């Protein structure tokens, strides 16, 4: 049996901020991606800046390819940011305003062979026609494309993305996400995306980490974390809107996700609940109803047909995860 | 009277929603007043230049500036100001950068030290410089060891101009560096730049318009320095001193040709710097094609 190779990126850090102390520990193999999802102020950006060397660690260390890049370890000197081979796309986007789009993208390119990649990147980022424009002439989405291109053109071992596509049209996000993933995997590099958009985090692939109030609460495959949250807080963060007591165990409750509920009693598929419809409103192409359960717990469900307020209903929560209240 | 219109009708009716006619009238009135004020200030500031041109004749210029050696004060002023400016750039640029990035201990006190020469009357600076770099001063004694005298020498002229003009450059440079987002510098280092490379490729080009303006202001101030100069460096005679002496000896008609010379020598650099700064800022702001 072959041993698991050492992670490309090893993180075990603690950073004391005014509002919150950020603690995180994880490793990422070459070619692997990790999405860190959490609310604003949870400490996502602090983790990225610590890896990049823009924020000083209070404790712990960060290693890239086994080399110490941040933290204090006796007998080892940490690498300065420029030598870490870390590419960072920041939020809000920072471009070099006196340089053209093309010059921005080519900024970190040091070898002549890599220069041909700049033209290819401009093409894939749909920036060829804007190659000679400066940052001030660009829209928010175009600026984010340039920042992404600048990062992808550099010789990175670790790609750090801080809400990189938040201003990009939804229709164009997929292509840019694929470009970032392809480049990361193609270079056998490590990629970290931080976002407060769960769908964006899941689409990045690889593993998903949930951060809240400075603590990495859960880390695992995106499907596992969303379908089996370990705590009520993680469940809340990934979209579970109701917590119904488990009659067989008073110290536990079922987490109800609005999209994982069907009308009717299907005991073989999950937990059958009864409730009263409190209100109904349109929700995209469907309807969102607020339901009150006999225990007075309220939760929302998404259904195809509007349900009348005051109506009694029987519902099935499909395989709801069990969490401690 | 209709004061608002549906959004779809705006282009046709020309009525701005929520902007009553009385308000529009007041807005036009205040715009006209501001325009008048701007013209009045502009004329008032340009007035002295107009008077200078009006009261000068070719004959008086030739009489004052024609004799051999009469342009010596110009060369003295240009030389001393250029050296003072070089010293300001050399010493003031790192100081301004460190201040702008908050990397200096006791930054407020350092700033106060820079402001002090600006707040003191130039005559007082001149008097105090005698104590500092004059033959009786502590620093003056040290300077004597390298054969520099701090009174009535070319060195004294440079020192006086430096004290009068340096705060203008340092404060201008401080503002210029502070206007550059430090996160952009960080981005450059993450993309492989050494700190000096990032300074040269990013910080300097972005701060350049502000630096040029600061430099131009300091240049004009150094060329025209008089208060401290007349106390500590009466000789060698620079242009401001020459104007003062000519005025005392020959009155207005004798002084005006040298005044013209000073304006002609001191003004082009600030004007060029202003035009270049404005053009560069406009390019970065995306108002002009690259």
Please describe what this structure looks like.
The complex is a heterodimer of chains A (325) and B (290). Chain A has helices at residues 44-52, 101-105, 112-124, 140-153, 170-186, 198-203, 222-227, 232-237, and strands at 9-16, 21-28, 33-38, 59-64, 67-71, 86-89, 158-162, 190-195, 207-212, 215-221, 242-246, 249-256, 261-263, 270-283, 286-292, 298-303, 312-318, 322-323. Chain A is α+β, with helices and mostly antiparallel strands and 325 residues long. Chain A folds into two domains: 9-232, Rossmann fold (3-Layer(aba) Sandwich), CATH 3.40.50.300; 242-323, Nucleic acid-binding proteins (OB fold (Dihydrolipoamide Acetyltransferase, E2P), Beta Barrel). Chain A has a six-stranded mixed sheet, sandwiched between helices. Chain A is globular, with a radius of gyration of 23 Å. The mean pLDDT of chain A is 92. Chain B is mainly α and 290 residues long. Chain B has two domains: 17-54; 69-284, MetI-like fold (Orthogonal Bundle), CATH 1.10.3720.10. In chain B, α3 packs across α13 (252-266), α9 (182-190) runs antiparallel to α10 (195-223) and α10 packs antiparallel against α14 (268-284). The chains are: A alpha+beta (325), B mainly alpha (290). The A-B interface holds A 52-54, 80-82, 84, 86-88, 90, 94-98, 100, 107-108, 110, 132-137, 150, 154-155 and B 181, 183-184, 186-194, 202, 205-206, 283-287, 290.
Supply database-style keywords.
heterodimer; A: about 325 residues; alpha+beta; Rossmann fold; OB fold (Dihydrolipoamide Acetyltransferase, E2P); 2 domains; 6-stranded mixed beta sheet; 5-stranded antiparallel beta sheet; 8 helices; 18 strands; about 25% helix; globular; B: about 290 residues; mainly alpha; MetI-like fold; 14 helices; about 75% helix; about 0% strand; disordered N terminus
């Amino acid at each position: 049996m072959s041993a698991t190779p050492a992670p490309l990126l090893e993180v075990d850090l603690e950073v004391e901020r005014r509002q919150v102390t950020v603690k995180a520990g994880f490793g990422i193999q070459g070619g692997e991606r990790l999405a860190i999802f959490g609310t604003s102020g949870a400490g996502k950006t602090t983790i990225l800046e610590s890896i990049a060397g823009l924020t000083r660690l209070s404790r712990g260390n960060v290693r890239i390819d086994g080399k110490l890049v941040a933290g204090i370890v006796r007998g080892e000197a940490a690498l300065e940011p420029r030598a870490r081979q870390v590419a960072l796309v920041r939020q809000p986007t920072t471009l070099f305003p006196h340089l053209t789009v093309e010059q921005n993208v080519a900024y970190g390119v040091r070898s002549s062979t890599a220069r041909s990649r700049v033209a290819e990147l401009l093409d894939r980022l749909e920036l060829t026609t804007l190659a000679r424009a400066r940052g001030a002439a660009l829209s928010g989405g175009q600026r984010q494309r340039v920042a992404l291109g600048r990062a992808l053109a550099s010789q990175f071992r670790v790609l750090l993305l801080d809400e990189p596509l938040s201003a990009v049209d939804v229709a164009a996000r997929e292509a840019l996400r694929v470009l970032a993933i392809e480049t990361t995997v193609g270079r056998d590099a490590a990629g970290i995306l931080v976002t407060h958009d769960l769908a964006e985090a899941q689409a990045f692939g690889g593993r998903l980490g949930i951060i809240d109030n400075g603590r990495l609460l859960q880390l695992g495959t995106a499907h596992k974390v969303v379908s089996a949250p370990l705590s009520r807080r993680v469940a809340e963060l990934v979209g579970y809107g109701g917590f119904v007591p488990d009659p067989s165990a008073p110290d536990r409750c079922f987490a109800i996700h609005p999209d994982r509920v069907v009308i009717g009693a299907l005991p073989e598929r999950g937990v059958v609940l009864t409730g009263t419809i409190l209100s109904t409103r349109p929700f995209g192409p469907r309807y969102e109803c607020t339901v009150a359960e006999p225990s007075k717990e309220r939760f929302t469900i998404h259904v195809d047909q509007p349900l009348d307020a005051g109506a009694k209903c029987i519902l099935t929560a499909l395989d709801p995860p069990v969490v401690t209240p | 009277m209709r004061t608002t219109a549906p959004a779809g009708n705006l282009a046709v009716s020309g009525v701005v929603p929520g902007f009553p006619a009385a308000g529009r009238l007041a807005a036009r009135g205040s715009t006209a007043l501001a325009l008048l004020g701007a013209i009045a200030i502009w004329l008032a500031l340009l007035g002295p230049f107009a008077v200078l041109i009006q009261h000068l004749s070719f004959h008086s210029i030739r009489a004052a500036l024609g004799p051999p050696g009469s342009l010596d004060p110009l060369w003295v002023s240009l030389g001393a100001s250029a050296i003072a400016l070089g010293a300001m750039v050399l010493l003031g640029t790192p100081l301004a950068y460190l201040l702008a990035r908050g990397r200096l201990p006791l930054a407020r006190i350092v700033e106060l030290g820079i402001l002090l020469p600006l707040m003191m009357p130039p005559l007082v600076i001149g008097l105090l410089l005698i104590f500092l770099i004059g033959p009786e001063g502590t620093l003056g004694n040290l300077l004597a060891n390298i054969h520099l005298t701090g009174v009535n020498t070319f060195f004294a002229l440079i020192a006086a101009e430096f004290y009068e003009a340096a705060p203008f450059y340092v404060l201008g440079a401080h503002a210029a560096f502070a206007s550059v987002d430090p996160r952009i510098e960080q981005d450059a280092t993450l993309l492989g730049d050494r700190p000096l490379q990032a300074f040269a490729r990013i910080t300097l080009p972005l701060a350049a318009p502000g630096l040029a303006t600061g430099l131009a202001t300091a240049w004009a101030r150094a060329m025209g320095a008089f208060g401290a100069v007349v106390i500590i460096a009466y000789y060698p005679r620079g242009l401001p001193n020459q104007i003062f002496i000519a005025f005392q000896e020959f009155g207005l008609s004798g002084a005006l040709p040298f005044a013209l010379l000073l304006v002609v020598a001191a003004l082009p650099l600030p004007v060029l710097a202003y035009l270049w700064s404005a053009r560069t800022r406009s390019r970065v702001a995306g108002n002009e094609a690259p």
